[in-house]
Design goal:
alpha+beta; 396 residues; 43% helix; single chain; binds (R)-mevalonate
């Protein structure tokens, strides 16, 4: 066991194309967002393991001695055990939830307990730790906040348990793990995501682990070689929704109308591939016509997503408002509210961007211009982010 404090961060994500289709084995294109989740892990000897999540007001602690007495053999299933419903039920008993405990809190605590007990059980004794996780990402908005949470937890717990080495050297402010270690982090993070979402495709945790821009299909990940120079307006409709329920809705529609829905998923996959092709062409020689193609792809995909039943009146409004300014938008993530993306062409005047932002804000939405293609999970020297950490802790 390492005795030092670890400070880890992982980015959120934006899916350009392929949400929902990716759950059914199709291609998705996703990019890491310049908004991150941070985790501080502090080993101590007070006999407790504590979890603090200031963004959602959670402060919980468990006696390590009590956890140690639990029969954790239910977690024994190979190297990176996949959570099954019976295990999740057992973890609920361990967690000791009160009746009025909100769903977000339950899922965050269950994913933590699952990863803590599974990763640390190989140690002679379960470690006494204090973990704080805070985020720049809104929760439940389709920006991969749960994946960034799982990735941070997996990276920090695997490192503190010396399952993977700490890549941070003496004078480094920031460092990243090797490809092989990232694969291990990603596998564990996926299990955390399974506790939270049931049966996710794995695209969110992959982007949060590797960062940059990725093409993802059935667990196969390939990084888009050169960085994209795309400017995007990200809008949060602030309409809450459940990824699990929306994914289940698409599955039901596919079962009910296979002849209609399967071609939609295939078409979305083709949109992802066409977008990838255009983006790679654009790196060499960007031209306005290519932006027009990207806009057409956005419009077609948004219609497909509506046909899959994951649209929402707030997203329609977002598309209409941006359309009135000559811009094209689609939902990103699970839909049903949450976030949308709008492509900003390079010839767009800043005053135009401000006008759209103003119009969207007056609909009750939050929006911001973002840079995409941020680095994946990283480890920071504890002092490099001192004041930032302090600010987050003050919020507790
Ligand atoms: C959620 O960010 C994206 C979905 O495709 C679900 C998944 O990939 O697991 C809707």
């Amino acid at each position: 066991m390492l005795s030092e404090v670890l400070l880890v961060s992982a980015p959120g994500k934006v899916i350009l194309h392929g949400e929902h289709a990716v759950v059914h084995g199709k291609v998705a294109l996703a990019v890491a967002l310049n908004l991150r989740t941070f985790l501080r892990l502090q080993p101590h000897s007070n006999g407790k393991v504590g979890l603090k999540l200031p963004n959602i007001g959670i402060k919980r602690a468990w006696d390590v001695a009590k956890l140690q007495q639990l029969d954790t053999s239910f977690l024994e299933q190979g190297d990176v055990p996949m959570p099954i419903p019976e295990q999740v039920e057992k973890l609920k008993e361990v967690a000791g939830f009160s009746e009025d405990c909100a769903a977000t809190e339950r899922l965050a605590v269950l994913a933590f307990l699952y990863l803590y007990l599974s990763i640390c059980r190989k140690q002679r004794a379960l470690p006494s730790l204090d973990i704080v996780v805070w985020s720049e990402l809104p929760t439940g908005a389709g920006l991969g906040s749960s994946a960034a949470y799982s990735v941070c937890l997996a990276a920090a717990l695997l490192t503190t348990c010396e399952e993977i080495p700490n890549p941070l050297k003496d004078r480094d402010c920031i460092s990243r793990w090797t490809e092989e270690d990232l694969e291990f982090i990603n596998k564990w993070a996926y299990q955390g995501e399974r506790v939270i979402h049931g049966n996710p495709s794995g695209v969110d945790n992959a982007v949060s682990t590797w960062g940059g821009a990725l093409r993802y299909q059935q667990g196969k990940i390939s990084s888009l070689k050169r960085p994209l120079a795309l400017q995007i307006l990200l809008t949060n409709t602030n309409v809450p929704r459940s990824t699990k329920a929306l994914v289940a809705g698409v599955r039901n529609r596919l079962i009910k109308f296979p002849e209609i829905v399967a071609p939609l998923l295939t078409s979305i996959s083709a949109i992802s591939l066409e977008c990838e092709r255009v983006l790679s062409e654009m790196v060499a020689a960007p031209a306005l016509e290519q932006y027009l193609v990207l806009e057409e792809l956005i419009d077609m995909n948004q219609h497909h997503l509506n046909a899959l039943g994951v649209g929402h009146a707030s997203l329609d409004q977002l598309c209409q408002v941006t359309r009135a300014h000559g811009l094209h938008s689609k939902l990103t993530g699970a839909g049903g509210g949450g976030c949308g993306i709008t492509l900003l062409k390079p010839d767009l005047e800043q005053s135009e961007v401000e006008a759209v932002k103003q119009a969207l804000t007056s609909c009750g939405f939050d929006c911001w211009e973002t840079s995409i293609g941020a680095p994946g999970v990283s480890i920071h020297s504890a002092t490099s982010l001192d004041s930032y950490v302090q600010q987050a802790l003050d919020g507790l």
